[in-house]
Amino acid sequence: MKQLRLVILFCFGWIISFSQNKIIVAQDGSGNYKTIQAALDAIPSGNDTPVIIQVKKGIYKEVITVDARKNKITLIGLEKDPKDVVFTFNNHAGTRLPNGDTLNTWTCGSFFVYGNDFHAENITFENNAGFTAGQAVALRVEGNRASYKNCRMVGFQDVLFLSGSGVKHYFEDCYIEGTTDFIFGAATAVFKNCLIHSKKNSHVTAASTNSIIPFGFVFFDCKLTADSNINKVSLGRPWSPTASVTYINCWLGSHIIAEGWNNWKNPANESTARYAEYKSSGPGANVDARVKWTKQLTDEEVKRFTVENILGPWQPLKR
Fold first, then answer.
1. Which site in 148, 202, 218, 272 is 20 to 30 Å from 74, CA atoms measured?
2. Strand (E) positions, 193-242?
3. For the chain, what are the domain ranges?
């Protein structure tokens, strides 16, 4: 009976803390937990009630997983500058684990989101495996309806992996940097007012949109920049034949190649990939030189590219 009372008191205390949004992570011990994963592990499996986890300033070096059985979780960095709250690890493809497994594209991430309705603000998601490590994912998102505001996704190759086919995501005022295919995957995702920075002569996107999915990656009012020595970057290459990527009212730096896009050494992709732009500006917006198998949207065609039409009834930042 005494043990039962203790369990009830513990659960009741957790519910009160949860309902008051007082789950705090702090490395110095001033919060409820010292690590992000410990806070996530404390949320009961099957959770479908909104949970807010506030994170104090620090560099949290850990592999973090949001379990598929835990939905509606929000992570908020308490500092306005996302550089002050950093989630980082150095996993990369080819790493051999103690159990004998070898990490690959799907498993080499620093942060994994499998639950639905995940939201993050003021946080840096980083993979610091290094320039020569190969595939090294900072953030992999498999769950549906994930949204990010004022966040940074940084690393080198394959930084942001939006791996779920048919799921939808939203990024606003975010900074995303990498080398090769650093925004990739099968999901539908809207990027609004984001800064996309290249650190190698390579490709920004590698979408693998399924043929039955109407929208892949759509960039609204984004700015594409690069390191000063970079001058040969494509807007994207198709990881799957029916990849879909669209840039709308985006500013493109001089690092973007005149032809704009790449067929991934397969001419057959040119008849199936769905690549488009609308009113690109900047030194990399060379419309007349674009490869002929991509599209410049008309004023009428661009009307279907609204956030509401792309994401449906979900309103990502109204929580």
1. 218
2. 195-198, 205-207, 217-220, 223-226
3. 47-311
